[in-house]
Amino acid sequence: MIRDFKKEDIDRVMELWLDTNISAHSFIQSEYWKSNYDTVKAMMPSATIYVYEENNVIQGFLGLMDEYIAGIFVSQHVQSKGFGKKLLDYAKDKKGALSLSVYKENIRAVNFYLREDFTVSNEQIDKNTGKLELNMNWVK
């Protein structure tokens, strides 16, 4: 079931955020994510967050800032089971257009977004990590 984020979800959401970032971005030192944890946690309430809950456990979430997808995070134990697609489809139903940035080296995520009809608009270097990222867009 997909539902809106509740304040009491923050610890589980942040656990997923940290674990998934470290796992998906082996090309970035884990200290980068750990050092940004508190900043991201403080920003969470200002985002629109949809959580995917199964058996009363949050298995994933999608964070939006207006039409910008800040990220889709799914527990490693249930990845490739369609939860990310369900979260993305849910956001697509609510918005007429979406955009995001994804590290080019995160091939799995890049391929996911391409399959979901996102197109690459440009490439840029992320000033925080020095890594190449793709800006991608989707329009209904």
Into which percent range does the helicity of residues fall? 25-40%
The largest beta-sheet arranges its strands as 1-2-3-4-5-7-6
- Could you state the oligomeric state of the chains shown? single chain
The parts where pLDDT drops under 50 for at least 5 residues are: none
Integer-rounded radius of gyration: 14 Å
Domains counted in the coordinates: how many? 1
Q: Which fold name corresponds to the CATH topology? A: Aminopeptidase
Q: CATH superfamily name?
A: Gcn5-related N-acetyltransferase (GNAT)
Percent of residues in beta strands?
25-35%
Average pLDDT level: 94
SS summary, helix count: 4
Write the H/E string, N to C. EHHEEEHEHEE
In this structure, how is the largest beta sheet organized? 7 strands, mixed
Give the CATH architecture: 3-Layer(aba) Sandwich
Beginning-to-end CA distance, first to last residue: 23 Å
The strand count comes to 7
Return the structural class.
alpha+beta
**Which CATH class is shown?**
Alpha Beta
Judging from the principal axes of the Cα atoms, what is the shape?
A: globular
How would you portray this structure in words?
By secondary structure, the chain is α+β, with helices and mostly antiparallel strands. The protein has a single domain, classed as Aminopeptidase. It contains four helices and seven strands; from the N terminus they run E-H-H-E-E-E-H-E-H-E-E. It has a seven-stranded mixed beta sheet with strand order 1-2-3-4-5-7-6, sandwiched between helices. Strand 6 (119-125) and strand 7 form a beta hairpin. Helix 1 packs antiparallel against helix 2 (30-43). The relative contact order is 0.15. The mean pLDDT is 94.
